[in-house]
UniProtKB/TrEMBL annotation:
Ranges where the Predicted pPIWI-associating nuclease domain occurs: 340-463
InterPro entries registered for this protein in UniProt: pP_pnuc_1
Organism the protein comes from: Anabaena azotica FACHB-119
Name under which the protein is recorded: Predicted pPIWI-associating nuclease domain-containing protein
Organism superkingdom: Bacteria
Pfam family, one: pP_pnuc_1
């Protein structure tokens, strides 16, 4: 590869190295600052106070008084069971319901009759409460019923048992909701706020972001290094020879790649500027670098020079490292509401794996059609018109141009150099698809499964880049 192209990539790599050095220095400074804060006497005192206050709450909740109250409730519930002869509170209430007619005939009191009727109607509600995890709610309902029974039926053993449960539940409720616990929790909250103020929550957030960006820079540098090695091995005169590439398409491929490389160098120079501060690191670092690697890999795979197995293994390693926690293309399509396109992608990959007659053309045609559908889903005509009325973004028929669609997809990043890189990247990819679709002198497809697999890598990477850029609009 000629020196100008290598110089562009060298510049990009030097920008990455400088960025990594800058962020490493910032990380070191932040770590020293936080370390000093964590070791300060004031912070230690705050943590000690919180620990002591939590111990107070723990001891309060485990105090003999609370334990005794809970034990008494257990004893009272056993008394209720023995009084009615039931094994559960649900059975007890059912017995009360069944015996209501007997009590009504014996007492003859209309008020008692009304009360027992209400108990009958509410038995199902109380029965469900018996299985509830909320003891307080159940006891509150029992309290209401016990007051009614007490006023009408006198001081029976059942009424006394329910009254004692009521008293114990009120004591526990008052202890749990006591101002002492509230004060302790409020004090703990204040101490936590003191710690956040002392250290600064933003410091931890900034530190996390800086660490993530440093890792992203390291991965980007690895990708750029692999791209540079591949470019060094690549000879311009060999590009396309393995597939008998037509001269006009060969020249077009090289020209578009050269434009893409220059655009990447400009993007790398500006990615540390304030313009991209809010942009996720992988969107401005790893993914553009991976796009360059996949483009060079496509040039390599159609050239006469045999591939270096060690370099190819390293490429696969870095692909896995960058994409390991990310969903596949099928799930990405589902995430953007394009479930109907999953079948098209599956059909394309099945054609690739089948290696049937004309499978290379079928595969490349499917990719081109799928790309058109995806970019239109990410940039619907109506939404573009609502976003901009610039006549330059629409063709003679009033349809949005590809430039308009890309500007719409990239509107959250909103930088000409970033949009220019995506545009050049798409142009290069579509040029490769044209090559695999119609760009050789041979009637029969000269393409190998390995060459088509590299095209698949490039297509997936490009679509992922577009979708992730589009999703950033909604973050």
């Amino acid at each position: 590869m000629d020196s100008d192209k290598l110089e562009n990539l060298n510049k990009a790599s030097s920008y990455t190295v400088n960025s990594l050095r800058l962020h490493t220095n910032q990380l070191t400074s932040q770590m020293d600052t936080i370390k000093g804060l964590l070791e300060s006497p004031k912070l230690t005192d705050n943590f000690s106070r919180i620990t002591g206050q939590l111990e107070q709450i723990k001891s309060l909740m485990e105090s003999p008084k609370v334990t005794d109250n809970l034990n008494r409730i257990t004893e009272q519930s056993q008394q209720i069971k023995s009084l009615v002869g039931s094994s559960s509170l649900t059975d007890t209430l059912s017995r009360i319901t069944e015996q209501s007619q007997q009590i009504r005939s014996l007492v003859g009191s209309s008020s008692l009759t009304d009360t027992l009727s209400r108990i009958t109607e509410q038995s199902q509600q109380i029965r469900s409460l018996a299985g509830s995890s909320s003891l307080t709610e159940a006891l509150s309902r029992i309290t209401e019923q016990s007051q009614q029974i007490r006023s009408l039926a006198g001081s029976s053993s059942l009424t006394e048992a329910l009254s004692r449960i009521t008293e114990q539940s009120q004591q526990i409720r008052s202890m749990v909701d006591s101002s002492r616990v509230v004060n302790i929790l409020e004090n703990s909250l204040r101490q936590t706020e003191d710690i956040e103020h002392l250290i600064g929550a933003s410091k931890f957030t900034d530190l996390t972001e800086q660490v993530e960006k440093a890792f992203s820079l390291v991965r980007t540098l690895r990708v750029e290094n692999l791209t540079q090695i591949s470019l060094t091995r690549l000879k311009l005169e060999d590009i396309g020879k393995s597939v008998l590439l037509k001269d006009d398409l060969r020249i077009s491929l090289i020209t578009n790649f050269d434009k893409l490389l220059s655009s990447y160098s400009r993007l790398a120079k500006l990615r540390d500027s304030e313009t991209f501060d809010a942009v996720p690191a992988e969107l401005i670092l790893e993914q553009p670098a991976l796009e360059m690697l996949e483009s060079v890999s496509l040039l390599e795979v159609i050239s006469e020079e045999p591939l270096d197995k060690e370099i190819e293994a390293e490429k696969n390693d870095i692909r896995r490292e960058i994409l390991t926690d990310r969903v596949g293309l099928e799930q990405l399509l589902i995430n953007i509401g394009a479930e109907d396109l999953v079948g098209m992608w599956q059909g394309a990959t099945e054609a690739l794996e089948s290696e049937r007659t004309d499978y290379a053309r079928h595969f490349s045609v499917s990719l081109r059609e799928l790309f058109t559908h995806i970019i239109h889903r990410l940039s619907p005509d109506k939404e573009i018109r609502n976003w901009s009325n610039n006549s330059e973004l629409f063709d003679k028929e009033g349809k949005p141009t590809r430039k308009a669609r890309l500007l719409f997809i990239c509107r959250a990043v909103n930088h000409d150099i970033f949009t220019d890189f995506i545009n050049k990247d798409i142009t290069a990819m579509l040029e490769f698809i044209n090559l695999f679709q119609r760009g050789t002198h041979q009637v029969d497809s000269p393409f190998t499964p390995q060459q088509l697999l590299v095209l698949k890598y490039k297509f997936e990477s490009n679509i992922r880049f577009l979708i992730d850029t589009w999703r950033f609009n909604n973050e």
